[in-house]
Design brief:
Layout lengths: L49 E6 L2 H19 L2 E6 L2 H10 L8 E5 H9 L22 E2 L4 E14 L21 E3 L6 H11 L7 H9 L7 E2 L2 H9 L5 E5 H9 L5 E4 L7 E7 L7 H11 L2 H11 L2 E2 L18 H4 L6 H4 L3 H12 L8
Parallel strand pairs: 1-2, 1-3, 6-7, 6-8
Antiparallel strand pairs: 3-10, 4-5, 5-8, 5-9, 5-10, 5-11
């Protein structure tokens, strides 16, 4: 979720009420799609008067309404409906209804996009259809145009400045002074992203999640709990946590809501990028309106709006970051260390890794506290 944009190319969040879930369903890979022909062709934009948007609920939907839907309605007069949920809600509905998808366009996490794109189940877009796409960093356009990040955040460390004056490394999690005062992320939150980071901390390239499991075993006994983003807020307020891993935008929301004792670490080892992707199902009923939706999401108004609300790093290279957001966003040299995982490769081990997490990590959590 970077703005300024001297920001170089990146080398390698339902913010609000609750964060998007990680892959819960059983068959994220190996799913077959039978894509029906689209009949006599897509309707013209003038004929399309209804749009169904899959979104993430809570405050994210409020910003989606304000910065994307309202301008779209003003232009087209279309009726737009939001279906709130998270990626693990939306994904199985797409699998179950490939010929008649329940959405025209939706927000989706990249680890859910990957298996859909592998089946060519999403409608590619280009700058011809979506003019604002020309300003988006090339490495935030995925799978030959089947998905584009409108903005992104990062799995980061958040810490209590009353206890830890500064943090610049993920190694703080192994420090004696934070034992039993930090939290690991749960499986239904950012566990996959954490395991990518853990593999890198163990000397890997981020693609071996089993390596990440082994590294996490050295940490889990001293973790206070498995806590997701939303539940981290009161835990920091009660001083039960002095450090935890969170989505960067959620950390900003926590700070901006009044918890001024928290800060976001820009760890020297980097962090895993979490793109907020927009996709159009291949057989969407209203593809032209869906493309207009994406174009508005990439407009300067929306890029600035989501940055203001969540410190979401804009995907547009033309955006600029205001001074009061710089501590909560990654830019310049900070961006060079960020990791954008190859989920097509990583998710092949998803089911086995999920089972190992439940069997080997969960029982260890807090056992030495």
């Amino acid at each position: 979720m970077v703005p300024k944009h001297e920001v170089p190319m990146i080398n390698q969040k339902k913010i609000g009420i609750t964060r998007r879930d990680f892959l819960k369903m059983a068959a994220v890979t190996g799913v077959g799609f039978t894509l029906a022909a689209c009949g006599t062709g897509s309707p013209t934009a003038a004929e399309e008067k209804e749009l169904i948007v899959g979104s993430w609920g809570g405050a994210w939907d409020e910003s989606t309404q304000k910065y994307i839907i309202d301008p779209l309605v003003n232009e087209t007069g279309a009726t737009v409906s939001i279906v709130p949920g998270n990626s693990s809600d939306h994904y199985p509905k797409l699998i179950a209804n490939p010929d008649n998808p329940p959405y025209d366009v939706l927000w989706l996490d990249l680890d859910f996009v990957a298996p859909l794109a592998a089946q060519n189940a999403l409608l590619p877009v280009s700058a011809t259809d979506v003019p604002a796409l020309k300003d988006v960093y090339d490495n935030l356009k995925f799978f030959n145009g089947q998905a584009v990040a409108a903005n992104f955040g990062v799995l980061c460390l958040v810490y209590d400045t009353d206890v830890l004056p500064s943090v610049d490394s993920w190694q703080i999690l192994w420090d004696e002074k934070v034992k039993c005062k930090f939290a690991l992320t749960p499986l239904d939150s950012w566990a996959i992203q954490w395991l990518i980071q853990a593999d890198r901390l163990a000397g890997g390239d981020g693609s071996n999640l089993n390596n990440g499991i082994e590294k996490t075993k050295t940490l889990a006994p001293y973790a206070k709990a498995l806590i997701g983003d939303y539940d981290s807020r009161p835990a920091f307020e009660r001083k039960e946590l002095v450090v935890g891993m969170m989505y960067s935008g959620e950390a900003y929301v926590m700070w901006s809501s009044g918890q001024k004792n928290v800060a976001m670490a820009k760890a020297k080892e980097g962090g895993v990028i979490i793109p907020n992707c927009l996709v159009i199902p291949k057989n969407a009923k209203h593809p032209n309106l869906a493309k207009k939706f994406i174009n508005y999401a990439l407009s300067p108004t929306a890029q600035d709006g989501f940055m203001s609300d969540y410190a979401s790093i804009p995907a547009s290279a033309t955006a600029t970051i205001p001074a009061d957001k710089k501590d909560w966003m990654f830019l310049g040299d900070d961006v060079k260390n960020l990791i954008l995982p190859d989920y097509t490769k990583i998710l092949k081990d998803k089911d086995a890794v999920s089972q190992r997490w439940d069997a080997e990590i969960v029982p260890l959590v807090g056992t030495s506290c």
